[in-house]
Write a structure and sequence with these properties.
With 293 residues, the protein is an alpha/beta fold. It is 31% helix and 23% strand.
Length: 293
């Protein structure tokens, strides 16, 4: 079992017709990661707090259809968080948010995770918005202490971070509890650190997504690998990084203890999955059968 913790929200995605229209689509980095894992055939549970409104119901329906376990989902009467992406000509997305008084912010630390849980993934808005951020942080520390593989994707959203220095300090405090740190080049620049320093703080590997330039990894032992991006016609990049998270977790969590990681193979699998996501509008990760070729 892989547990993904964090927000589920609605992306109001701009469409060409009619002009100025916004179409609601399920989203949120952790939600997309859980959805992608389910579609890849992984045993996965989503750990979050989701609104009881209509948007919340549709979010859970999407996860249920992908085979995601919802037993760790908390519910609340508050509204669903909304995100409004603006799409650049190259397909990249920037985000504005409506987060005040929303359900996911009130997440509380759950009890024991399901028996057989092998990995935990956290990231994005859920680690920037209190009081839920502290509960997710406590979950990370607790499960890391139990020996779980932990993946952190900070997936920085500057519009949600009021104190950059405080967030950077908190990020450094998470690293001793992180097995794999995955982040984009933009995240790395915003955080202002160096990969070597992050590795020294705890993670066994740092995976860097570089858009059209592909993926790279550096390990604590000093190994470095790169794979190119797959060339596709890009609709947008929404959910591509989250699909990378899912692909990494799917491959890494199944390795027997002590077995070396085939990083070129893992990164190539992740690049293929992310490329397929980019060919579709919104966060629509691929199914396992689409990656079998």
């Amino acid at each position: 079992m892989i547990v993904v913790g964090g927000e589920a929200l609605i992306d109001l995605v701009p469409v060409a017709q009619p002009p100025g229209a916004l179409v609601p689509r399920p989203g949120g980095g952790p939600y997309n990661t859980a959805l992608a894992l389910g579609r890849l055939g992984a045993e996965v549970a989503f750990c979050s707090r989701v609104s009881a409104d209509g948007f919340g119901a549709s979010l859970l329906a999407g996860l249920r259809a992908a085979g995601v376990d919802l037993s760790l989902v908390q519910r609340g009467p508050e509204p669903t968080t909304l995100a409004v992406p603006s799409i650049a000509p190259d397909g990249s997305a920037a985000y504005g948010f409506y987060v005040e008084g929303t359900a996911d912010r009130l997440f509380t630390l759950p009890g024991a995770l399901p028996a057989g849980t092998r990995a935990l993934a956290l990231g994005t808005c859920s680690l920037a918005l209190e009081p839920g951020a502290s509960a997710y942080e406590a979950l990370l520390r607790r499960e890391s202490g139990r020996g779980l593989l932990t993946l952190l994707d900070p997936n920085i959203r500057p519009a949600l971070i009021t104190d950059r220095a405080a967030y950077r300090a908190r990020f450094l405090g998470w690293l001793p509890y992180v097995s794999v740190l995955k982040l984009s080049e933009e995240d790395a620049r915003w955080l202002g650190g160096r990969v070597g320093d992050w590795l020294a703080a705890g993670p066994s590997a740092v995976v860097l997504t570089r858009g059209a330039q592909g993926l790279a990894v550096r390990t604590r032992e000093g190994a470095e690998y790169e794979v190119p991006a797959r060339r596709v016609t890009v609709a947008d990049t929404i959910g591509a990084g989250d699909t990378v998270n899912a692909a990494l977790l799917h491959r890494l969590s199944g390795l027997p203890a002590g077995e070396p990681v085939d990083w070129p193979g893992v990164l190539s699998y992740a690049a293929h999955a992310a490329a397929l996501t980019c060919t579709r509008a919104g966060a629509e990760p691929p199914y396992a059968a689409e990656l079998s070729g």
